[in-house]
Description:
The chain is 37% helix and 22% strand. It is α/β, with parallel strands linked by helices and 181 residues long.
Amino acid sequence: MGHVEVDVHEGGERTATVLPGRGYTCDGPLLRDVRRLLRERGWTVRTVRWTTPPTPRELLALAPDLLDGMRARPHLVVAKSLSTRLLPAAVERDLPGIWLTPLLREADVVSAATRSSAPALLVGGSADPYWDGGAARRSGRRVLEVAGADHSVEVPGDAAASARALQAVVAAAAGFLDDLS
Length: 181
């Protein structure tokens, strides 16, 4: 497994851990703008970076290092794609989460989203092969599905629609954070 780094931007009492996808870093538009939103609202933001993405097994082994030990409550998880495989671990710890393009074709991820008692926001695009809008809606969680958007929550060939999709994600995240307060 590649080296894992955690950068911390100190803020207030609440902490968010932001986890990248396999090829989608925390500097990609979705995670960059959600991190910016969190910082603007006074959250301490822990940004996870890896030189080589972990395998699913390695990711689960990292769960204690990534999710435990935060004294702040709430401790929010913001995860993209590959990192949404930590949804079951977050549910075990009763952690709220913003799950960007969760892997809803994987039974354990869907099951965790459904049984979670902590607040959760599931975000995906209708053209994303890893997204299952029906499963997302049946989970009982808050859902934002962007019509025509792919796994990056972008609408191929339509820059304006992609920009609106990013704005919708940030607005949904802001609403979710409002409800956590």
